[in-house]
Every structure is written in structure tokens, then in C-alpha cells.
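Reopening: ATP-binding protein still failing for me.
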Amino acid sequence: MSKRAARQGDRNRQGTLVSTATQPFTAVGDDALETDGSLFGHARQPRNPISHAQIEIVLSRSVAAVAVIFALQSVPLMLEQLSSRKTEAAIPLAGLLGLSILVFVFATLLRRGIRSSAAVVSGIYLVALLVWPLVMIDPTLVLASKPWLWFMCTVATSCAAIALPLFWAVAYTVITPVAFGLVRVLPSGGEAETVLAVLDTFYAMLLGGTVLIIIYVLREATAKVDSAQSNALAKYSVAVRHHATEVERVEVDSIVHDSVLATLLSAAGVRNARGAELAAAMARSAIIRLQEANGERNLDDASVAVSMLVARIRSAATATGVFTVTELCVDGLSIPEHVAEALYSASVQAMVNSVQHAGPAQSRSVTVGGNDQSGCTIDISDTGRGFDVSTVASGRLGLRVSIHDRVATAGGVAVLRTSLGQGTTITITWPRPGDAGGQ
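Support: Ran it again with your exact input. Result attached.
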């Protein structure tokens, strides 16, 4: 049976005891208070400013941008050196390299096939470098300047760092500059002095190695961030489950105290047929409440006006015949529905405790007002006999579970002030001071 039906049944039963379960609140309209991050609210999606996937996009797009710049920079020199090369082979190789770079750029924008296109760029560059002497018209003719592929060496090693595993990326970063250095000492490469060729080789290795280190350090760091976040989310999930279990325990303890124990006490005091009928009705209601405790909890963000909470408390107070209710500055205030249910149940339980245990009292009152945290404060007071808090047995559930734990679970706080012969006041405040709006 649904929670709504169970509470409707509780409302319809007759007797002198005050029911702690009546028709639940209904949500208010556009002025409902939004509860983002409340105890039972929907969890926010975790912010993730840095992740492995994001850093891969940033790195690949950076390399793509550099590749475009260096490719454009090499075009004038390529056209200048074209006259000394076999155009039927040189132009297709240059075209393939340019096309592969273009594909790589689009891959980074579309976030598809980034590593594959980067590997193609690296592969075509290495092939173009190895066949450089073979594409010259006269391999013995000394080239007047460096081969235009020099400008693309760092691009090729950076693409290899993006595309290849660490071992193969390191190997490519070493082999490609060495291959360029060997071409550099040939006539087709400008017939540079050995020292100059070695310097060019180590310079290319240094640039490629620096890019490689940056890429893999960032990858390792973001991988650790992702792992730490996954572990944190897993621990949070466990904590949420534990909290849900504790909330359920508090609810069941409250039901046991509010319904089951009250039913047993009523049954023990039956003296006539009318009392037996009332005890049976209370027993049926207690069974329903225990069954519906296994149902799904309402976790939505619906809100209700505090004035509706006051109306329900006033109705319960009227049923006692001894409490008066005062409403102070609650117009326009709204609170989450599950909070209103908790405050109402705790308030009613406080009134029931006063009627059952405070003895004769000149006055009993309930005051509901707004507070400076956009919430509400409820004072339940009597001028009865009071009691010594230190003498209350730990097994008693009325104060600890039905009031204190129930309010704390909803994000509020309940404070008890009492002493022998001085009456009792229970102050219920939501949200908890310093926790504005239940955040």
C-alpha cells in the first residue's frame, strides 16, 4: 500500500491519542524552494575540469595547430626545391603529407580517429625522408639549402608521441632525426658538414623529446586524476548507501515508537469493546506503516509552504485539546517536502510526549516562525513537571529517534531545555544553524 494511502487511513481512525501520520504535503507551485544539494536531493554531477580525455584533445589540437603553421612555412622552400626534384614523385609525396596533416586537423576537431591520423602523418613523413635522395633529378647535385622536410621534423615526432605507445614513440623520436642527419650530409641534402648535421640531429631530438615528455607527463598526471576521482566517487557511493541505511533505521525506529509501542500500550489498557476496537484499528495502522517503510522514499525536490506545515500542526494541536498554536512571519516561506514531513512528525511527537509525561500544566503552546536562514523554527513548550535529562534511559526512543534523529536526518537540529518543576521546551530549527537553505 502506498504511503499516501497509509497516512489517509491513519487520519481516519478515531481515538484520544494524537496520530503522527496524516495526509502528506502537496508541492507548491513556482515559488517552491529549490533544494540543490539537500540531504535527500538529487546529487550534483561532479565537476571534472581536468581529465585524460580532455588533455588528449588539448594536446592533439595543439600539435595540429603547430603542424599547419610549419606546413605553411615549408611551402615556399618546397616550391623552390621542386625544380631539382622528380615532380612525378615529389609532388604526390608532398601532397600526401599535406593531406594527412589536413585529415589530422579535422580528426582533432571531430574527436574521431586522432591517433590513427597522427600515425599516418608520422609514417608518410618518414617515407618521404627515406626516399628523398631517390627523388632528386641528379643525386650528385648539391642542394643549395636544407631540405624542406626539416621544418616538418618536429611535427612528425609530435604526431608520433600522440599516436604511438611510449617505446615506439621514443624510437621514432630517435630514428627520424638520425635519418634526417644522414640525408643532410648527402649532396641531395645540402652536403652539410658532419658537425652541422649532428647538431641538426640533436636539435630535432631535443625538440621531439621535449614534446614527448610533456605529452606523457600530462597523460600520466590526468590518468591519476581520473583514477582518484573514480575512487572518490566509489567511496561516496558507499557512503550514500550507508547513509540511506541509517536514514531507514531512523524511520523504522520512529515508526516502532510512534505506532507499534503506542498500539501495545493501548492494547494493554483495554477495558471495554470500544477500547478493543480502537486498539485493533491502531494495530492495523501500525502494520501498514511498517509495510510502507519498505517502499520507495520520496526523494524529489518538491517544496511546500511553511503555512501548510503550520496548518497541519494546528490540526494536530487541536486534536490534543490542550495546545495552542501561534504563527509568526511565515508568509512566503517554503521548505522541502521531506523536511516538512520530518518537522511535522517531530512536533507532533513532542506534543504527544507533553500530554503523556508532563502532567498537569497551566499552558502548552506551539510557536512556528521564520528564521534568518530562510527556514523555520518551531518551539513546543509546556509548564508541566519537567524532568532530569540524565535520568532518561538510553533505550527510550521518543526524544532520541522520533525527534532528535528525525530532525537531524532532514538537515535540522532539535534542542531540549527542561528541568524538574520548570516545564519543558523543545526548539526545532531548520536548516541547521550555519547551514543556510539546507546546503
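The two ends are 33 Å apart (CA to CA). If you still see a failure, please send the error message rather than a screenshot.
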